[in-house]
Amino acid sequence: MATKGNYSLGNIDGLLLVVLVAAGFAVSDSLFQMVWLWVSTDTYMHGMFVLPLVAMMAVQMDKPNFSRNPLPLLPASLISVMWSGALLVASQSMINVLEQLVFIALIPMLVLFKAGWRYLWFYRVPLTLCFLCIPFGDFLVPYLQSITADMSVWMLRLVGVPVLHNGWYISISAADFRVAEACSGINFLISTFVVSVFYAFTYMQKSYKRVVFMGLGVLVPLIANGIRVFLIIMVAHWGNVEAATGFDHLVYGWIFFVVILAILFAVGHFWSDPVPAHENKMQYIDLIKGRPSKGVAALLLLLVPTVIASGYLDGKAEQLQQNYDSKVRVKTLEFINDPLGAKFPYADDVEKTYKDGMFRVVATYITEASGKKLISYENQLFNKEVWSIQSQSRVSDKDGMWDKFVLVDLKGRKSVLYRRYVVDGSFIVGGINVKLSQTISRLLGRDFGGQVELRLTPSHTDSGEVRVND
């Protein structure tokens, strides 16, 4: 039987807590953004429950029947060097998800340092599930919009409803619909998947059951959302356009999703395995108690210069921004005839011009900061109330590659949009390539921002090559 002294606060590893605080300080902006998304959005609200559920899962397990074996200093130091480097790269990449990923990776790493490989493997499930708290998945929205639109149109044609389909626009004789971001089903998809993962690892012991149930956690909300949009359009087809597009649109959606979720977990209950009894459970204080290990000390020593280097580069970027703001009057050139509707709300300069039938937008970022980024979900390539993406590809000209988007409006009119980025004087396409170039440039202290250039032409005048009107 454990004595009271074994669970006193005096046994807490203070060095471990110092490491967590120092690492959190290095990526404080992204951690604040993560918590803010937990409390302010339906999509990522589940995040605030992940870590408590992980802790509950860990303490419900039987204690390992083997002793702790802290990682030796040399391998711990090598891992610390790699992690500290990853933290510096993440902090300069200005990618919130990457910063959050590196920070959460600190949790299993500290378990490894203090208790060894066998402990890490023993608690592999709860330690892996920690990463589900990271807000991740916004990039799926346009793909989910397309899947939902295609699925609902297929079902409409299956029941014989005449329908016109242009990108995310769906037209029937009674009304016109657009599969908006809110109709993509991203909220339900992410939440259902996370819940299905915890349910599978809590109530299912067989691997094939877990895999199938987690697969259902993805497949069911995708199909359910397509059916939901189909039913909303059918309500309009049956003569009640107001109910389909008004308040009842949301009511029907939530009621439908609750029913689908209930069915999913009824299946999960049917598949559940008997939960084994656990008598020798871990105590919460066991997770952080114990004497400081040499590996944690080495990590802290490496973490200090990493935080200093990150702060130095951030200060250099801030000084560059201040110099720009003091010498240059930021201006935005707007023209009444803006067929695209692109928005870069936090850019230092946005120039829009129209010449020889081509509309051109150039947005410049001298530096980046939290909420002010060259690649951001808040930036808008086009007016989403007017345009939707029909297809996407890449083309090249004498300067390099461009992203090419074929846009279509509700009336079926098409235009071609070209996009490329400029970082440290180089033309780049692809979000990952852009962020990689930005990170390298920031680490070298050369370029702390970038540019994005857009060119829009009507499809009937597009030759398949990027026109230059500079």
Short recap of the structure:
The protein has helices at residues 14-26, 28-40, 47-60, 73-93, 96-104, 106-115, 117-122, 124-129, 141-158, 186-203, 207-237, 241-245, 247-271, 294-327, 431-443, and strands at residues 164-166, 169-171, 176-178, 332-333, 349-355, 358-365, 388-397, 400-408, 414-423, 426-428, 450-458. With 470 residues, the protein is of the alpha+beta class. It folds into 3 domains: 4-136 and 293-316, no CATH class; 138-271, no CATH class; 328-461, no CATH class.
Walkthrough of the structure:
This protein has 470 residues and is an alpha+beta fold. The protein has three domains: 4-136 and 293-316, no CATH class; 138-271, no CATH class; 328-461, no CATH class. It has 15 helices and eleven strands. Strands 4, 5, 6, 7, 8, 9, 10 and 11 form an eight-stranded mixed beta sheet that branches. A three-stranded antiparallel beta sheet has the order 1-2-3, covered by helices on one side. Helix 2 crosses helix 5, helix 4 runs antiparallel to helix 5 and helix 4 (73-93) runs parallel beside helix 14 (294-327). The longest helix has 34 residues, at 294-327. 31% of the residues are buried. Residues 1-10 have low confidence and may be disordered.
